[in-house]
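Task: complex structure prediction.
Instruction: return structure tokens for all chains below.
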Amino acid sequence: SAVISQKPSRDICQRGTSLTIQCQVDSQVTMMFWYRQQPGQSLTLIATANQGSEATYESGFVIDKFPISRPNLTFSTLTVSNMSPEDSSIYLCSVEAAGNTDTQYFGPGTRLTVL
Amino acid sequence: AQTVTQSQPEMSVQEAETVTLSCTYDTSENNYYLFWYKQPPSRQMILVIRQEAYKQQNATENRFSVNFQKAAKSFSLKISDSQLGDTAMYFCAFMKSRHHSGGSNYKLTFGKGTLLTVNP
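Output:
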């Protein structure tokens, strides 16, 4: 499976500010995904990021709040904009396994606390 | 829409014993995948096991095995010889097969999770 890293691993931010989370993969992957895990909850898909195209957002998530970049086949960023305490969550990126479609592997996650 | 239900919020087991975690799901799809992921306190989501719905044989990965009952829409995880390192939140997840259904739906639908504690 691919080795996935995320930066930062955790952060504490003030209300109204923005945070950009980075996801780096050690191999080229077609599909990257961003999930949110609110405290004590399960994971919810925010968006799917293809290289060279606009991200596809799930219902309830909008580009203005969660802009995503995918500049190449090994890297993606998720920005959480104009944060409020309700945005306090773990944010995880995942990638589809090469040659083994329909299986996703996850990064270590970014724990975000908004005060 | 697909739903995944894990009816056991918490479970505990003694080290070296066997435990079974339950998962049921609801879908109108015929071709799909089911997964178990574990999330230890480090919060890393780790793939434990994967089952293809069109395969009747239950998937096995070392001490981890599943009991897949397609007609009953049940997908339980059995952990044998439980170890302290198995302590984690376990999530059952569903994904529609893109190869059979087409489209671009990569969405994993997760259950709410079962917190498993392995006691020494």
